[in-house]
From TrEMBL:
The chain crosses the membrane at residues 24-45. InterPro entries: Gal_Oxase/kelch_b-propeller (IPR011043), Kelch-typ_b-propeller (IPR015915). This is Galactose oxidase. Keywords: Kelch repeat, Membrane, Repeat, Transmembrane, Transmembrane helix. Pfam families: Kelch_KLHDC2_KLHL20_DRC7.
């Protein structure tokens, strides 16, 4: 007389929309999984990098292609980091632990100088090329790692300022930072000055204005020149350099504005002796400029840059520098557990 039991169950206890609801949610979840991919940075040149704790941060640069493959030539505000507390292999990009922070809304910049704050809780970015001059005098951008936000730092700075510049470099010591040389943003003329920035008082002071700045004594605020020995590297720009705990300065790549280099040079700063780095497994076609290099444990990590024919690199390379008389390219990054910051 009544409906079959099966019909009653579906029409009374589980109307059609409710019956499908769990499955709709399931398929939406699958859709999101299929269309969400890991961040993998594209090629860039004249970016900046800074290592803070076990994160290697990358800021800006020039990108020649966007993520769809379309040609562009402009500065980028991409901001991301590589987690070097984790092991990865260069032969499998899915293992490289990139993390994208671009949505924090940083400035579009290239050829900047970047330093970490005294307590490793902020990143200072000093000027650079961004296709417009926002402030008269060197511009400072600051990223707060705790709050995860960019701060307009320029209103805090006392008004004796270095000139606007790009291609400058910086180093930190004793609560201060030194900004050196670069190119004047208005006309690309080379600068040979050096300025000290006090992060406590937010003020600048001119250190020196001299053509041959070689060695800087952070205790006496004095510059001196020093004779070196051995065959010296050919002149170059847009190269990278790191210093090892045993006092080797390792220089790689760069350009003389005509040729791009892939050579390795070592300066022993105990003896001030130059030597050519002996790479036991050289990569014959690895020529790059406008890249960055960072010393992490026993590795010199070389990131991005420009290959010959103006082709931007999206690659990173690892050079094992643990031996002072021979070097080798490796594809496996194995972090030292003892160096982890708690």
């Amino acid at each position: 007389m009544g409906m079959p039991f099966g019909h009653m169950a579906c029409s009374w206890t589980c109307p059609m929309p409710l019956c499908l609801e769990p499955y709709v949610g399931f398929y939406i979840f699958i859709f999101l999984l299929n269309f969400t991919s890991a961040f993998i940075p594209v090629g860039r040149v004249s970016h900046s990098s800074v290592l803070i704790n076990r994160n290697l941060y990358f800021i800006g640069g020039y990108r020649f292609y966007d993520y769809s493959g379309s040609i562009i030539e402009n500065t980028t505000n991409e901001f991301f980091y590589l987690d070097v507390s984790k092991q990865f292999t260069l032969n499998d990009s899915s293992t490289i632990p990139w993390n994208d922070l671009t949505n924090t809304g940083g400035p579009k910049l290239a050829s900047t100088a970047v330093c970490s704050g005294e307590f490793n809780d902020v990143i200072y970015v000093f000027d650079g090329k961004n296709n417009e001059i926002v402030y008269e005098g060197l511009t400072i951008y600051q990223y707060n790692l705790i709050k995860k936000q960019w701060i307009d730092y320029n209103t805090k700075v006392k008004r004796i300022l270095p000139s606007n510049r790009s291609h400058n470099s910086c180093a930190k010591f004793n609560g201060s930072m030194i900004i050196m040389s670069g190119k004047y943003l208005h006309n690309d003329l080379a600068l040979d000055d050096a300025w000290l920035f006090n992060t406590v008082t937010s003020s600048w002071r001119l250190s020196q204005n001299h053509e041959n700045l070689i060695l800087y004594n952070t205790n006496t605020d004095e510059w001196t020149t020093r004779k070196t020995y051995g065959t010296t590297p050919p002149g170059r720009v847009d190269f990278s350099a790191v210093i090892t705990p045993d006092r080797r300065v390792i220089i790689f790549g760069g350009s003389d504005n005509t040729n791009i280099f892939g050579d390795l040079w070592i300066l022993n700063i105990e003896t001030f002796q130059w030597s050519i780095g002996n790479i036991t497994n050289p990569i014959s076609d690895l020529l790059v400029s406008g890249h960055t290099a960072t010393l992490i444990d026993n590795y010199m990590l070389i990131a991005f840059g420009q290959f010959p024919e103006h082709y931007p690199s999206s690659k990173i390379f690892l050079l094992d520098v643990s031996q002072n008389d021979s070097y080798r390219w490796v594809t496996e990054f194995i972090p030292k557990q003892s160096n982890f910051i708690k």
